[in-house]
Write a structure and sequence with these properties.
mainly beta, Jelly Rolls, globular, 327 residues, 2 domains, seven-stranded antiparallel β-sheet, 7 helices
Length: 327
């Protein structure tokens, strides 16, 4: 099996039904959804009990864990394999918020490690589509005292302290650990994050599930990780019209937005990382090691670290996100 030439890999989406989900993953991203309010499509996941399965080519039916065990550095890159001890370090999603998500916060690596929670959660959002009046929350409006926070939480007026930002397609938000946040209703986005499913819910708008039950809240954990400083700059600034725009560069992932209308030849010889491509407009054909795969809107491809020479051919105009880890 080791002698197989690695190629552009697609995975079966893992759909998540949520209280706040809708159907835009189907109507906007062409996903074949099950019934219900589907809020998330986990595109590539190494999270326990949510391991992605290959959907294309000779490796179809094999799990991401199997690929890592079998191909190791050829799939992940030498440094990534060593740094993350054979775990897949990212969780890649599309999210459809038909209603507001809970007000929440995520821990950093230190807190997660001390509490046996695995990785912390740093994440980034790229807004693909949104309603005209869409907005989201990122951080506090002003530096906030814990006593004021607790008072507003008790009186169910916490939103008075939170930084609500209007949203347009193409907007980018970087959400570091400790930042209070929520995705607002009417927003469809791509989410790139550390491989973690940890969320500390602070407030869930008093809603209940179909059985009349409220979801668990995590006041104490949230208090231990919240950054009460002001959020000075919620949106990430970048050149919307640049053919290759860097959206995010962090210790955990780098994300670029690429817009093309002619062939693109990528040389990843200096990279020691897998590459992930997420389709956000148009369609491209990705070829490496003489094997081709199409990437349409709402699809995701993983290019193994062993795939160094890549040709990308667009059908008319296309936009996609390019994701990797730098050292």
């Amino acid at each position: 099996m080791n002698k197989i030439e690695l190629y552009p890999l697609k995975f079966q989406p893992i759909f998540k039904e949520t209280l706040w989900g809708g159907r835009k993953l189907e109507t906007k991203l062409n996903k074949n959804l099950p019934e219900g309010k589907i809020g998330e499509s986990w595109e590539i996941s190494g999270v326990k009990n949510n391991i992605s399965v290959v959907s294309n080519g000779i490796l179809a039916g094999k799990t991401l864990d199997y690929l890592i065990e079998t191909f190791g550095a050829k799939l992940l890159g030498h440094k990534i394999l060593e740094r993350f001890n054979g775990a897949f370090p990212l969780l890649i999603k599309f999210i459809d918020a038909a209603e507001d998500l809970s007000v929440q916060v995520h821990p950093d690596d230190s807190f997660a490690e001390k509490n046996a929670l695995g990785f912390g959660k740093t994440e980034m959002w790229y807004v693909i589509d949104c309603d005209n009046d869409a907005s989201l929350i990122s951080g506090f409006k002003h530096a906030t005292y814990k006593a004021d926070y607790l008072e507003k939480l008790e009186s169910k007026s916490l939103s008075e302290l939170l930084n609500r930002v209007e949203v347009s397609a193409g907007d980018v938000f970087f959400i570091p650990p400790g930042r209070v946040h929520t995705i607002g209703k009417g927003i469809l986005l791509a989410e790139i994050q550390q491989s973690s499913d940890i969320t500390f819910r602070i407030y869930d708008w008093d809603r209940t599930d179909k059985n009349g039950k409220t979801r668990e809240l995590h006041f104490d954990d949230a208090m231990n990780v919240l950054d009460f400083g002001a959020c000075r700059e919620a949106k990430t600034r970048y050149d919307l019209f640049n053919e290759n725009a860097e959206l995010c560069k962090s210790n955990y992932f780098t994300v670029n937005k690429i817009q093309i209308s002619k062939p693109l030849y990528k040389h990843y010889t200096e990279f020691d990382s897998f590459i992930i491509l997420m389709g956000i407009a148009g369609e491209i054909t990705v070829t490496t090691n003489e094997i081709s795969e199409t990437l349409s809107v709402g699809e995701t491809i993983l290019l193994p670290a062993d795939c160094k020479q890549v040709t990308i051919l667009p059908t008319d105009k296309a936009k996609f996100l390019e994701i990797y880890i730098e050292f």
